[in-house]
Design goal:
- The protein has about 325 residues and is mainly β.
- It has two domains: about 240 residues, no CATH class; about 70 residues, Immunoglobulin-like (Sandwich), CATH 2.60.40.
- About 5% of the residues lie in helices and about 45% in strands.
- The strands form three sheets. Strands 3, 4, 5, 6, 7, 8, 14, 15 and 16 form a nine-stranded antiparallel beta sheet that branches. Strands 1, 2, 9, 10, 11, 12, 13 and 17 form an eight-stranded antiparallel beta sheet that branches.
- The protein is elongated, with a radius of gyration of 22 Å.
- The protein starts with a helix and ends with a strand.
- The relative contact order is 0.15.
Length: about 325
């Protein structure tokens, strides 16, 4: 398990270095909201603390960089910062000069009863993971105890998306205490945003929410109200721009996988290839055209990463021997 995770982190880091940094776009859908099943509760005993740190072994590609949810003592980075007021923060890997913030509902939330909690759940999704955070039955500061909200933030490694799931809520409109829905990457002092995508408008009518790209907190416009139960807002990088540098799978193949004594790499046209071990060390490399059979009898059993480059296109695949 540790080897698989190390390889995945390596792949995500390498992918993050070539995906073009840009802003996200959002899509809307409706799903049945469900509480997380047996999550790890990280807030449930008080209503005072503004946020909590939790270390999770996850590097997540965002804005063409990497959000690091793990504990890095040398920085120091205690891990992901889960704020009581509805957002999540993480440092950028490997420079740690920037911070990511993911806002599902920026407001002053409090614990109003024993069912109120903030929790987290990390689940496998094939060779990837989905990281889920949940704010359950949270009240709003200076509002009635009968008012509450439920929502979740999901990080899906497989499709590199960040999604906000909205559950049952009772919330009276407060024009002086609006929320914020979006995500950003900024210098650690938050003097300016390197990238940001947020939604403005009336969240009660999700179809009317409009994207905008603030450059600092001074021009970050809050959305009004809370999205209806079942609203799913998903943020992803534009598909066309991701494909600009991604080698389409229809143009290459690597067989067999798992492999034993040899590995055949097929790629239309002239291409470069590298086989990389868990430590990021290059084991084998070459430049070929259309197809090459690689002798792998000298490779130890385990997990590897193969990198294929063709002109300005690139692809990474996991290999198993």
């Amino acid at each position: 398990m540790k080897k698989k995770y190390t390889l995945l982190m390596l792949a995500i880091f390498l992918l993050g270095t070539w995906v073009k940094s840009q802003n996200y776009v959002h899509t809307l859908s409706n799903i049945a909201y469900q509480d997380l099943s047996n999550p790890q509760v990280i807030h449930g005993a008080d209503s005072i603390a503004s946020g909590y740190y939790i270390a999770i072994n996850l590097l997540f590609p965002a804005f063409g960089a990497i959000a690091d949810f793990s504990n890095v003592p040398s920085i120091p980075s205690p891990g992901a910062y889960i704020a009581r007021d509805g957002y999540l923060g993480a440092y950028e890997n490997p420079s740690y000069t920037h911070t990511f913030a993911f806002h599902a509902y920026l407001n002053n939330l409090i614990r109003i009863n024993s069912s109120s909690s903030i929790s987290v759940l990390l689940i496998p999704n094939g060779s990837f993971k989905i990281l889920k955070f949940q704010w359950k039955n949270m009240g709003i500061l200076n509002h009635s105890d009968t008012e509450y909200v439920n929502f979740q933030i999901w990080f899906d490694e497989a499709n590199k998306s960040v999604s906000y799931h909205y559950g049952p809520s009772i919330l009276n409109n407060d024009p002086n205490n609006g929320g914020a829905i979006g995500l950003l990457r900024a210098l650690n002092n938050f003097s300016s945003f390197t990238n940001a995508t947020y939604l403005k408008g009336d969240a009660k009518i999700p179809d009317q929410l409009k994207e905008f790209n603030p450059t600092s907190f001074s021009n970050l416009i809050s959305s009004n109200n809370f999205p209806p139960e079942g609203t799913l807002i998903t943020f992803k990088l534009p598909t066309s721009s991701v494909k600009q540098n991604e080698l389409n799978k229809s143009n290459y193949s690597i067989v067999p996988n798992p492999f034993n004594e040899s590995l055949k790499i097929h790629c239309l046209g002239r291409f470069n290839w590298q086989i990389i071990d868990l430590n990021g060390k290059q084991i084998k490399r070459g430049t070929d055209e259309d197809e090459i059979a690689v002798n792998t009898t000298d490779l130890a059993n385990g997990l590897y990463l193969i990198k294929i480059e063709r002109q300005n296109e690139i692809a990474f695949e996991k290999l198993v021997k």
